Amino acid sequence: MSMRSGSAGIVVIGGIMVLAGCSGGSSQARADGVGATRSAPATPTTATPAPTSPTPTPTPLVRRTLKPGARNADVRALQQRLKELKYDPGKIDGKYGPTLQRAVWAFQKVNSLKVSGTVDKRFWAALDAPKAPRPVSAKRERTRVDVDLRRQYLVVYQAGQVALISTISSGNGEYYCARDFGATKPRCRYAGTPTGDFRTGRRASGWETSPLGQLYNPIYFNGGIAFHGSLTVPSYPDSHGCVRLPMHVAEVFPRLVGTNVPVHVRRPS
C-alpha cells in the first residue's frame, strides 16, 4: 500500500516518508544502492618503457703498424698513451702528423728502439711496459733538466717527477765560421754542445735573431748556447751547438722551466 502526500517532494511508501529531490536523498540512495550509478572497474594498465638508444660499441684497437699520414683510432690511442707518459704528441686528433712523429722519436730513443717514426709491434709492446728515462748525472735535483747528447733527448723534472720528455737536436760537430755581433772578422769553431752542469739564465719570448739564425723562445744556459724552438729538428745532431726543440715543445718549455734551474748535459755510454 502506498500513499502520496499533497506536500511537494514528499512520498510515503510502505509507511515510510522519504524526501525526494535533495542532496540528502541522493546520498541515501547511494548508500542503499538504490538509484546509484556504478562505474566499471578500472582496467589496470602496464606502463610502456621509453625507448632507449643502444650503447655504442667502442671501436676495437687493432694496433696496426702506423706511419706518418695514418688516421684512425689506433693513432688516437697512441697519442693518448704518449701524453700519459709525458711525451708531447700535440693535439689528440687521431692524425699522425709531424708533431706526433717527434714524440714517437723521443719514445724510441728512451726505450732503445730504432728511431724511425714507425709504430710497429715492438713499439706497442714497449708502450705497455715503458722504460723510465735514466738520469744523466749523479746530481739529481728534484727540479732540473737532463740532456742526453748520445740518444738526443731531454727530460724536464718538476718536484721529482717527469714533466716532459722531448727529442732534441744538438751540435753536429762540424767546423764552421760565423761573425759575432759587433765583430769585424768571423770566428771559426766546431759546432759542439759542451757537457757539464749549468743553470738556466736569460730568456726571450718569440723569435730572437742570433749570428747563426733565428731562435724561438730561447732559454740560455751556457753563454750563447740555449734551448730554443726551431723549424728544423731532425732526430740526429744538426745544430751549431744549441739544443733545438720542436716548435710545439718550445711553446710549453718556458712554462715548465724557470730561471736558475739546474741543467745537466751528458753523453752517457
Keywords:
20% helix; L,D-transpeptidase catalytic domain-like; globular; single chain; disordered N terminus; alpha+beta; Muramoyl-pentapeptide Carboxypeptidase, domain 1; five-stranded mixed sheet; 269 residues
What does this structure look like?
This protein has 269 residues and is an alpha+beta fold. The chain has 3 domains: 2-28, no CATH class; 73-128, Muramoyl-pentapeptide Carboxypeptidase, domain 1, CATH 1.10.101; 144-266, L,D-transpeptidase catalytic domain-like (Beta Barrel). The protein is 20% helix and 25% strand. It has 5 helices and 14 strands. The longest helix has 13 residues, at 98-110. The N and C termini lie far apart (130 Å). Residues 1-37 have low confidence and may be disordered.
Quick rundown:
The protein is of the alpha+beta class and 269 residues long. 20% of the residues lie in helices and 25% in strands. The protein is globular.
